[in-house]
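Pilot study result, target chain (432 residues):
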Amino acid sequence: MNVRKTALSLLRTAEAEQKYIALALDGFLKNADCDVRDRALLSALVLGVTERRVTLDYSIDALADDPEKIGARMRQILRLGLYQLMFLTRIPPHAAVSETVALGKSPGERAFINGILRGFLRRGKEIPLPADRFEREAVETGFPAPIVRLLYDNLGDAASDALAALSKQPPTTIAVNTLRTGVSDALETLRKAGIDASLCTASPRGIRIAQNISYQTLCDLLGEGNFFVQDEASQIAICALAPKPCEVGVDVCACPGSKSLFAALEMQNQGRIFDFDLHESKLPLICASAKRLGIDILSVAAHDARTPLENLVGTCDFVICDVPCTGLGVMAKKPEIRFHDPELYKELAPLGGEILRASAKYLKTGGRLLYSTCTLTKTENENNFYGFLAENPSFAPLDFAVGAVKSENGCVTLLPDGKRDGFFIGLMQKVR
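Predicted structure:
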């Protein structure tokens, strides 16, 4: 396999079809016949070029005589070459240049690529950074300046650490299926196999795996039905909700289903959870996961979360209301999110509020509602949470503690820290 040619093809396809590059990469690798080193290099290239697009384009524009004339394919080739020179220190510069130049289709293209890459080797360190604070941090971190500004507007000085964490490759975190095996047993199995694994600090079922490892390898080691992939922040959210055996709950935006699966483990697979999602095509994901894990308390159906089902109104002990959001807290896993419209939160926040108001109708007195997102804007998070409470005196914030994670007035924002996603968790109770 020509790794760089394959990387270029994946990047071009993902850009043209607006696909998440991680999904495109996973889809390719599942059927690819290539060795471990080629798989690792391919992953590093396609993910790295996507994550560092802002940084790479800044250098390209500084080195090119007329950046406007560089076409989309040529720009992707230059990104691939520059990424190797800037970030993959184990690849000799001459190899990075020659392999990238070979991607050119004509002598003229190859000469242009060679000129830009060798120009970077000569004077790349002399390229001045932008004077503007946000533009400068954008080049340094790889996040577009409007996203950098948005994070500072919402997080203050904590945005700097958040950006640094979101720039790192995150670990894989799994939730152990405690219906079938113990967390300590799963951890011991992984460590005996030489896997760098550790217990999560807050979630009682979470194991964090520091090294890059395939899902199939995990299945071979642990057994396919003995775990599922779920970030610790999401696990903490369900621990805060604390579903109990024999309770009845609703997950209003359930796909891909990990929160319901974790809730079912909390309930010892006793009770009932109604799983709804707007997109019927996604529901088989939940059903397949539940069957694999031996969970049979989920009732899955397509339904619009903005309109509660009358037969369930006032009957539920808990509601999981994980609403559509801008996803700023998971940009380390989905680097394309950084290139979304920074104003998108203005559209999604009202939708989250509408879903929250509808979902609250499912609760009976004493019932709990989890309002959560994987984003970091106050408009989508605190404003919706406290706005609902201000308008609905029959609900009150419900404080919680999960390990060292403690809420204040019913909610907490988990900042991305290189180990778990950025996440908002808000908990409330219907008091009358």
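One observation from the pilot: The longest strand covers residues 363-373. A full batch analysis is planned for the follow-on phase.
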